[in-house]
Design brief:
With 169 residues, the protein is an alpha+beta fold. Helices cover 35% and strands 21% of the residues. It is elongated and about 55 Å long.
Amino acid sequence: MSSTSVTFRSSNRLDAFDLQLLDLLQADALMTAEKLADHVALSASAITRRVRRMRETGVIRADVAVLAREFTDTRLNALVLVQAREHAEERGIAALRALLTATPEVQTVLDISGEYDLALQISARDMNDFNALTDRLLQSNPTVQRYETRFVKRTHKQSLFIPMAADAD
């Protein structure tokens, strides 16, 4: 492994061991330090200290439960492209982003390039729930010029995994 390191929040340096740990914890956040030590050439106590430091400094923002697809496959999932009004003020777009970010059904909010300004991933109970949600969030919002929706027919991969250890090579 290379001695390359990545800097986070200017004062925290991540080395190759940290990056390996991040990859492993993204795959299974419940792995014990002992189990992590089977994959990373560090003692369990050293791993515990590193993981604690990464949590305290915000490198690891949260540990989450990933629900089985069989449990969630009846939900209506959609990708929504949002175009802001041509002369929308940054304040209005910022308020729209804040509203979308605070809405649990909106799983992803992205600023994008091109004809549209935002891309959203939304998970709703059903079409009625989706329509009520978009009416409240988008249809009645003065910042929104228009939006287009693409419904997800089938999900083949969904992941939050970001390969980190490869950055150390």
